[in-house]
Amino acid sequence: MTTSQKPAEEAELAPELNCLPDALRHIHFMGVCGAGMASLAGMLKEKGCRITGSDQNVYPPMSLFLESLHIPVCNGYRPENLDPKPDLVIVGNVITRKNPEAVALGRLGLPYLSFPQAIGRFALKGRRSIVVSGTHGKTTTTAVMAWMLETAGLDPGFMIGGIPVNFGKNYKTGAGPYFVIEGDEYDTAFFDKGPKFLHYRPWMTVVTGIEFDHADIYRDLDHVIDSFRRLIALIPADGLLIANGDDPIISRETGRAACPIQTYGHGGQNSWRAEDIRIRGSLTRLTIVNQGHRVQFSTSLYGRHNMANLLAAVALGRALHVSWDILEEAARTFSGVKRRQEVIGEPNGVLVLDDFAHHPTAVRETIFAVKEKYPNRRLIAVFEPRSNSSRRKVFQREYALSFDGADEVFIAEPPLMEGIPVAERFSSRQLASDLKERGLAASCCETTDRLLGDLLQEVRSGDVVLIMSNGGFDRLHQRLVGALESLGRPSTFPVHNND
After folding, report:
1. Are residues 87 and 178 in the same domain?
2. Helices (H), 47-170
């Protein structure tokens, strides 16, 4: 066998080193640009530890966030990133056994923890853990809950998979009794293939919805459901399960809980309901109904999915005896989360939005919400299939049904396809063809440069451009805004008639 044919070395980590060392001065994060990893890095830096990190996908907003915390990040994984030797290495779930830095970790015999293990040891010790789980809506729901507890003066700790505008960062240590954490069903680490949220010691738990996702680690929907069953089984009898009662899968599983259950949603069967939803200017107004109470709320959030997220947060707040007045104030003053229907700019009358949507359901609900918010404006949807599931053909047919609210659709070619077998790959060209058969104007673009050029040829003043990706998308949002700004005065820009 030649050198080029030699199999890649795999990390061998000693189980006895999967621990917290006695002396803890320098902690290194492998995969530090993940939202959770970056927030934990910030928390531990605040505690006085020296923090370093490495990653191969260094892009905003997390790269800028870490830079603001003065946490150095090595771009790329190399053995020398562990020199000088840290006291502890926290290993993100993006790291594989063949990662050269992981191989060096095993060879050096350094103590290590997975990210969820570190959360349990550093963040949740001595706290009441509030876990927000589900296929969709976790980040917004967690952010609203944290802001409600903050508004109530409860000084919560939290860790969120996005950056809430109210806080300017996605973590807070807090001194109060509660810690709110986004509970991900993705696997923990290459040395622990169980779901992350099983490490989070749930006391009160929200389940926003259960659908098939993460096709790289889950075999099928039943496999996903089994993970949520295990989470529900962990909730103690004195805890609480807050469940989306509009989801039939969740409704079947709640009977397994040993704790009290409250349901929320738009259906009349739920103990928490949102009624009389209407958009008035920049705010959505709604009535929240629960056990004879009918309370008027206003929020900058919009879309039926976000009204459900708000309901879950209000149910949690009331369970913790927060007053209705404070909950209404928190809902009204909540400023959203970066990359969730975030306004990037409106150069020359073209509104550019950034959203994290990547699952077919999230894409459909986001498009529906934006169209409802801006009914008289042409909606151009731009989608990058980048997640582990969306780059596979498991959702090929479902995506064809997810863009009906858009007036025009641009689909990027999926990146990072080398590790996916050809027979399992998603086809952007096929999606564009399927959308055309449904009567939608759709096109597939091979490169981001070509996509940007096509957008600039197409957009007109008055349009809304909704860009959806769970990655950096080659900075398409910022590049589009910059290019539109460079076109000069609005009078030189084509105008789209919204009537």
Report:
1. no
2. 62-68, 100-108, 115-122, 138-151
